[in-house]
Write a structure and sequence with these properties.
single chain; 264 residues; 2-enoyl-CoA Hydratase, Chain A, domain 1; Lyase 2-enoyl-coa Hydratase, Chain  A, domain 2; 2 domains; 6-stranded mixed sheet; 4-stranded mixed sheet; 11 helices; 47% helix
Length: 264
């Protein structure tokens, strides 16, 4: 079996490309979960990585779960508890690993991002869509619920009302509709998607890597904690940031520009 996930690194930017275009890059029924887990662990260990891009090959970002693989659940001998465990040890591990990755992530959404594919984009910090991108929280169309954590992820991106509309109808959004509701931050021509995403990634990667990770962690914690708790965490992280070489260099460079020339 060929690898599902291509791992490419250029300087501080890693690009993860889902590479099963014939099946529209499904996240189940294959090695996707394990490969994403390996990739995120590798990125966490490498302080040189400052930005991660997630994208898909072919005409789709990701079609989510492999519908053909779902036929196995029709077996009367397969009871609910093993299915529950399969979700916990499968796609839900991917969700936790991607969401908790401290390195900033950009989803470059090409084509269809359906079901778990839509939710995968929501695990990233920033989403850029090609003009042909399509999004759907489509589990309901298959008589399912978002088993991958989409009911937690999507409302934090688009708000509860829009998330409910998407989850209850399962209807597709085109790129412009995704931009209008805040699901993506920009829409670009398909042939410029990776160039635009790489340009943004490089602007982010120009900043100190350790502080980028601390900033992302604060943003994540801010979604789940009280203001007082976040302020306490911010004070601790700022203490770490003040002791980095990058901070000292930035302060000295700033002050050097403001020094008056010697009289003479």
């Amino acid at each position: 079996m060929t690898n599902f996930l291509k791992y490419d690194q250029v300087g501080p930017v890693v690009t993860l490309t889902m590479n099963d275009p014939d099946r529209r890059n499904p996240l189940t029924g294959n090695s996707a979960v394990e490969e994403f887990l390996e990739a995120t662990a590798r990125i966490e260990r490498d302080p040189a990585v400052r930005v991660v891009i997630v994208t898909g090959s072919g005409a789709a970002f990701s079609a989510g779960g492999d519908v053909r693989d779902m036929k196995k659940y029709e077996d009367d001998a397969l009871r609910p508890m093993p299915i529950r465990t399969e979700y916990q040890q499968g796609i839900q591990r991917l969700t936790l690993a991607m969401y908790n990755l401290e390195v900033p992530m950009i989803a470059a959404v090409n084509g269809y991002a359906i079901g778990a594919g839509c939710d995968l984009s929501c695990m990233c910090d920033i989403r850029i869509a090609g003009e042909s991108a399509k999004f759907a929280e489509s589990f309901i169309k298959l008589g399912l619920i978002p088993g991958d954590g989409g009911a937690w992820l999507l409302p934090r991106v688009v708000g509860m009302s829009k998330a409910a509309e998407m989850a209850f109808t399962g209807e597709m959004l085109d790129a412009q509709a995704a931009l209008d509701c805040g699901l993506v931050s920009r829409v670009v021509p398909d042939d410029q998607l990776m160039d635009e995403t790489l340009a943004l990634a490089n602007r982010i990667a120009a900043n100190p890597g350790a502080t980028l990770r601390l900033t992302k962690r604060l943003l994540r914690e801010g979604q789940m904690t009280s203001l007082s708790s976040l302020l306490e965490l911010s004070a601790s992280y700022q203490a770490l940031a003040h002791k980095t070489e990058e901070h000292a260099e930035a302060v000295n460079a700033f002050l050097a520009k403001r020094k008056k020339p010697d009289a003479g």
